[in-house]
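question for whoever is on the cluster today: can someone run the full assembly for these? two chains, 519 residues total. i dont have access anymore since they changed the login thing
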Amino acid sequence: MNKRWLLLWFGMAALLFTGSRWLPMPEPYVPVYPANFGNRLNIPADNPLTKEGVLLGRMLFYEPLLSANNKISCGSCHQQQRAFTDGKKFSTGIDSIPTERNSMSLANLLWVRHFFWDGRVESLEQQALTPLTALHEMGQPLDISASKLRRSQRYTALFNAAFGNSNITGDQIVHALAQFERTLISANAPYDRYLAGQYQLPPAGERGMQLFMTAPDPGKKIRGANCAHCHGSPKLYMELFHNNGLDSLPLDPGREKLTGLAADRGRFRIPTLRNIALTAPYMHDGRFSTLEEVLDHYSEHIIQSPSLSPVLRNTSNDMNGTSLKLSRSEQKDIIAFLQLLTDSTFINNPQFSNPFN
Amino acid sequence: MKYTLLLFWATILLHSSISAQSATISVTGEVAHPLQLSAADIAAMKKVTVQATDRDGKAHSYTGVPVADILQRAGVTMGAQLRGENMSKYLLIKSGDGYEVLFSLPELDAAFTDRVVILASQVDGQPLPEGKGPFRIVVPGEKKPARWIWEVTAMTIRFAKE
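^ ran it for u. tokens below:
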């Protein structure tokens, strides 16, 4: 009897203490990924992952109200079936003026520290501001987006659950978007299963992997493509900036625009090769429409320039060659390997799909 | 008229100086004096020459400034001060391409080792080749040159966490 009273008192005191903000705390969301991806995660201290935040972020990712014409969402240029790209050379947003660069695949962003092709921003929170407000993408100031969401009944409870209040601010919008994007983990391609010892590579894929991982050394009669030097590791990217020999005088200066350094001319972030068979066209300007064209580039057409990556200089299967000089069948084998990087669970994961469909 | 011309040239000069920025090396973190070293600053420091074998399998002679001297100048706890909790400090070196490599302080300190790790500016008497300069770390005796990080832009000293 006594005990029950005590409990009641305790409960009432707790209620009074938390006052009108009596709400269940959001539940932590624990991302699941293989150990070989490492734990160098990029999660800002003020935006921990919560189930409620991720759910809200997913809705916002597909919410066209965040655009000036109510027609464009993040999902327009980042479509799940294409590993969150859009199949276009350049994307179009609220008007017909194309973006300056090719849409990027969104996978395993939890580990990325420098976003965009040129690495110009350092968090997903900051990154989201660009598409939301850019004139030719979604073209809407954050406070207008926030007030549109406030007017739509749908979001009050969701913001409340995620952030403990339903003020609905621009800050909360980008926080929730970033949380959702951090859950876009792709780790179940045949290659991942191979690394986990659960899959046997077909012969062409096996030969392709060998070439992918090996640096050529014609003096020692070692044939290779050396792709892994830049696109290696279980995540299939390294966060480095290189000029991969596309142009001698690039139209798009890449990282040089940020730093003013000549060494950065035509340098771009090494993109992930995960799901690469789904994300054509390729490169920052979508210049190649097939993987065959990409392999032809590395094999035959590396353009020399002062900022060309040292990794691609004099790297060839021919003595004194300036491009890789891979045979047709070697190129095919490498493409067979690249196809084993497609993660079909990722592109079909219902937790990443458009909740409005 | 004269003034507009002057203004014109001044703008051109200003622009070219922006687009032709030259690389510097920052030394920051657990240092007494943060440094921003220009090529001229580094040229004025004492140089040594070491023999080392690059990826090409051939021995070359590399000339540059001992990394320990740079750390000394920044007031990093080296020599007699390299003891106690300072033993858990590390040096992280960063390249313009984003690559990063790590050294523990005793690996660089003459009180601990005879190996002299240098910030090289020359190979076999010539400036470093395009793409690998102007400054590159050279670690004599290391079998695999993965820590010979090129295009060095930053050195940071930190305490290891935990």
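summary bc i know u wont read the tokens: The two ends of chain A are 53 Å apart (CA to CA). Chain A touches chain B at residues 114, 119, 239-242, 259-264, 267, 306-310, 313 (CB under 8 Å).
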